[in-house]
Amino acid sequence: MEHILFFSDMTNMEASQLTYLCCYNGFQHRSSSHIFAAPSGWLTLNIDGSVSTISSHGSAGGLIRDSEGSWLTGFNRHLGITTPLQAELWAIHEGLLLAWSIGFERLQCQTDCAEAYNFITSSNANSSSLTLVRAISRLASRAWMMDFCLICRVANEAADSISKIPTYFGGSTFIFSDALFEIIFCLLRDIPFVDSIS
Hints:
Blueprint: E1 20-24, E2 27-31, E3 43-51, E4 57-65, E5 71-81, H1 84-102, E6 106-111, H2 114-120, H3 131-140, E7 145-150, H4 157-163, E8 173-176, H5 184-197
Parallel strand pairs: 3-6, 6-7
Antiparallel strand pairs: 1-2, 3-4, 4-5, 5-8
Helix pairs in contact: 1-3
């Protein structure tokens, strides 16, 4: 299976200074602001969680793109009072559920939260003390090809924007069939970069 690998030295660095090395079939490209495309034939699920420092209310959101970087669908869910880790895990869970329900068969889930990434890629994720981690593990083990990937925050701007859209539907997940105005700039900016590595 093909993979995109990401490397960085995060010690004493701000997110805007991070540079990730994208290795794609032997091609290397350094970028601190663009998306990282999944391998050809795969879809990319970018997710993010957001929690207010004032109210502690959180939300989860994300989007699914094809290997050309084009929008396929997106989602947002209001979570109520939560933690940043729980918001990120909810975003991963809801994104995987959405992708599975549509019938996607090859999916790379990208997150910028190292803590969540470590939980869901742990060898004992299926027996984790966290309910959401166990649920994500069960989803990941279904009959499809899927992979988790850790990316830098500045490469996750579209998902970050969606997670912060105020949608209050009593815990229901809201699905966006069309690209949102708030993230169109991110999508258009990323497409030339995707073309350069595909």
